[in-house]
Amino acid sequence: MSTLTLTSLQHIPIIRHGDNLPDIVVNALHENTISLEDNDILVLAQKIVSKAEGRAVHLATVTPSQRAIKLAEKTEKDARLVELILQESNQVLRTRTGTIIVEHKLGFVCANAGIDHSNVSSLLPEGERPGNAGEEWVLLLPAEPDRSAEIIRQEIQSITGKRIGVLIIDSHGRAWRNGTVGVAIGIAGMPGLQDLRGEEDLFGSILRITQVGVADELAAAASLLMGQAAEGTPVVHVRGFPYPLHDGTLQELLRPREQDLFR
Question: Are residues 13 and 70 in the same domain?
Answer without folding.
Answer: no
